[in-house]
């Protein structure tokens, strides 16, 4: 992730569509480092306070119609071929139904765990209210106030730690399948980020307040504002957000239908392109040529699943809830597909998470923990992001195989620093190869653990790849 610090002149040249005309002559004469910081902060705030359309809605309608027609024809032809194939092989057309049913099994347990997580997060507001209101009653320099502050700080750290442990324990104890596990774990991370954003954004109002001054007493956000923030598709807390005038129910329905369609399409990709190639993996020795063919054969389903995941989460799901909640800022991503370098790709691929990482990780590292050290701040962002991605995947598939951690946290970070402008073709080629490697290696490990019996029954069996100990012995 590249640091978003630019001079005024660079900002105007690189962002001609943004309004920076309000920067006056006096601001131009400020010290450079302060001016940079002000521009960064004001840019982020402006992004959160203006009404912005989803970027795919801004594409020319004729292009949308053309792409839609081509996609529908491809999908209909593929569907016809699949039905005919099942018909000639005397099988009932499946269309991914069995995979979806298996992946989302035990869904009532998912709803129960989700409800408990949501209730506990609502309790954060009550705890924060208690800390903030009582704190104002103590003398600013009293020992009691210090004990009060540090005690509640330890409390929020303990709460976040337990919030990591308990839902994960529920996933393991109930033996939830892949999709159900990912729902719980992704929602867990989302609520952790929301809780941190709320506390980190509101607490400074009370910490910086000094009585007997002209500064007014800080006001705690209403519970309705906190509740709205928990559901709205953003991770940056603000007391108020841009709101649409009405709910467009046709868009809500369309997006939810597309969510279901994509789920079945991904299941179909797995059943037709991945499962037949990997289901016998681990029963016989594997040659290097077979591994290469597996990776090459997984590139197409890998990049298709990657695009489906992006479209499902960042377009359909978030736009559906944005419409339901009349949330007007729909810039959940930018045109990352046109990026010519990975630094631009990481900044535009997921605006929602990027802004959270920038505001609460990068900015705090750069300004407080490691002052003015861009490299350490960027490394911390990549480390946290890659670890969380690997955490979700590892507990969902029930084994630790840090391919994603290495590709994202090591290779991705290296590419950001080394290749400043590799070109759009290289970006797409590397994404295709990378997703092919990810899908292939994780599928091989998954089926190796099914087809090859374990030689040990301890913690190390979850960490040591079965493909190494079984296939290549």
From TrEMBL:
Location of the protein in the cell: Endoplasmic reticulum membrane
GO cellular component, one term: endoplasmic reticulum membrane
Keywords from the UniProt entry: Acyltransferase, Endoplasmic reticulum, Membrane, Transferase, Transmembrane, Transmembrane helix
Predominant localisation class: endoplasmic reticulum
Chain ranges passing through the membrane: 109-131, 152-172, 251-270, 290-314, 375-393, 399-419, 426-448
A Pfam family this chain is assigned to: MBOAT
Mode of membrane association: Multi-pass membrane protein
GO molecular function annotation: O-acyltransferase activity
Family (UniProt): Belongs to the membrane-bound acyltransferase family. Sterol o-acyltransferase subfamily.
GO terms of biological process kind: cholesterol metabolic process
Name listed for the protein in its UniProt record: O-acyltransferase
Active site: 389
Domain of life: Eukaryota
């Amino acid at each position: 992730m590249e640091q978003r610090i630019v001079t005024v002149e660079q900002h105007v040249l690189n962002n001609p569509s943004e309004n920076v005309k309000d920067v006056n002559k006096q601001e131009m004469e400020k010290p450079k480092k302060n001016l940079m910081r002000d521009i960064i902060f004001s840019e982020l705030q402006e992004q959160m306070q203006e009404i912005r359309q989803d970027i795919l809605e801004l594409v020319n309608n004729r292009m949308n119609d053309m792409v839609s027609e081509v996609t529908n024809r491809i999908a209909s032809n593929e569907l016809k071929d699949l039905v005919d194939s099942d018909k000639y092989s005397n099988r009932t057309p499946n269309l991914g139904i069995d995979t979806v049913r298996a992946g989302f099994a035990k869904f009532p347990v998912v709803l129960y765990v989700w409800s408990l997580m949501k209730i506990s997060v609502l309790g954060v507001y009550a705890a924060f209210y208690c800390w903030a209101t009582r704190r104002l009653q103590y003398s600013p320099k009293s020992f009691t106030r210090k004990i009060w502050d540090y005690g509640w700080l330890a409390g929020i750290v303990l709460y976040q730690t337990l919030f990591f442990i308990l839902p994960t324990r529920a996933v393991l104890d109930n033996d939830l399948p892949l999709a159900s596990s990912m729902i719980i774990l992704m929602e867990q991370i989302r609520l952790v980020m929301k809780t941190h954003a709320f506390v980190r954004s509101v607490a400074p109002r009370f910490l910086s307040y000094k009585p007997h001054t002209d500064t007014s007493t800080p006001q705690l956000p209403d519970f309705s504002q906190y509740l709205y923030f928990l559901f709205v598709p953003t991770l940056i807390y603000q007391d108020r957000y841009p709101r649409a005038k009405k709910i467009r129910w046709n868009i809500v329905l369309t997006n939810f239908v597309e969510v279901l369609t994509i789920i079945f399409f991904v299941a179909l990709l797995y059943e037709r392109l991945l499962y037949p190639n990997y289901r016998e993996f681990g029963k016989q020795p594997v040659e290097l040529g077979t591994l290469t063919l597996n990776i090459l054969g997984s590139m197409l389903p890998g990049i298709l699943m990657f695009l489906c995941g992006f479209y499902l989460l960042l377009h359909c799901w978030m736009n559906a809830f944005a419409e339901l909640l009349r949330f007007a800022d729909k810039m959940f991503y930018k045109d990352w597909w046109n990026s010519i370098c990975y630094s631009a790709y990481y900044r535009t691929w997921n605006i929602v998470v990027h802004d959270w990482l920038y505001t609460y990780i990068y900015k705090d590292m750069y300004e407080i923990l490691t002052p003015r050290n861009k490299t350490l701040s960027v490394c911390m962002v990549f480390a946290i992001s890659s670890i969380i991605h690997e955490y979700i995947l590892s507990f969902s598939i029930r084994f630790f195989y840090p391919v994603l951690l290495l590709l994202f946290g090591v290779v991705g970070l290296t590419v950001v620093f080394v290749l400043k402008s590799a070109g759009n073709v290289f970006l797409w080629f590397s994404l295709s190869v990378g997703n092919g490697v990810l899908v292939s290696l994780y599928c091989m490990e998954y089926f190796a653990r099914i087809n090859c019996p374990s030689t040990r029954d301890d913690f190390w069996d979850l960490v040591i790849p079965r493909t190494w100990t079984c296939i290549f012995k």
